[in-house]
Amino acid sequence: MVFFSESLGIPSLRVLAQKLLELLFDYEIEKEPLLFHVFSNAGVMLYRYVLELLLTHRRFCHLRVVGTIFDSGPGDSNLVGALRALAAILEHRPAVLRLLLLVAFALVAVLFHILLAPLTALFHTHFYDRLQDSASRWPELYLYSRADEVVLARDVERMVEARQAHHVLVRSVDFVSSAHVSHLRDYPTYYTSLCVNFMRSCVQC
What we know:
Number of helices: 9
Number of strands: 4
Strand content: 5-15%
Mean pLDDT: 86
C-alpha cells in the first residue's frame, strides 16, 4: 500500500525512516560511518525520507554517511513493472484471485495517475525526481540489469546521469542478464566484490 500512499502524497514512510535512524543511537553506533544498501523502489521510497532527515533534522545531520548502494532501482513510474512485481508476489495464489488483484491494482493505479497525480504534484515531489536533485554528495553505486522487467535499465541510467551532473561520484554496473533483485543470487562472487570494494573506497575517502 506504500505505493498508493506515496502517489497520494502521504509520507507514510517518514516515521519508519526516523525510527531506522534512531536505532543508530539506541545501539550507540551513531558515530560509525554509514553505508546504505537500498533495494528496489520500495527501498528507494524509504531512503528518500532517510535523506530528508539526514539533511534537515538537527539530530541526524551529524551522522557520517559515506555512500549508498542501489540494487535494482530507482525506477520512474512504470505500471507494467509494478504489475510484474505484484504478479511475482502473488505467484502462489489461485489464478482467479491473482487475476482479479492484478486488474484491480491496474485500475486503481491508472485512476491515481490520471486524476490524482496532477493534484499531488502541487505539494508532493515524486521520489525519483527528489532523488535526482538530492543535495547528498557521498558516492553512489548502482547495480542493475537490462533484463530487469520491473525497474527499467534506462531509468537507472538516467538517474546515474542526473547524479553525475550534480558532481556526485557515481559508479554503475549492468549485470545484463539477471532479473529484478537477483544480481547477488546469479553472480554472488562478483556482486560481493563490487559491494565490498565500494564500501572500502567510501570509508577511506
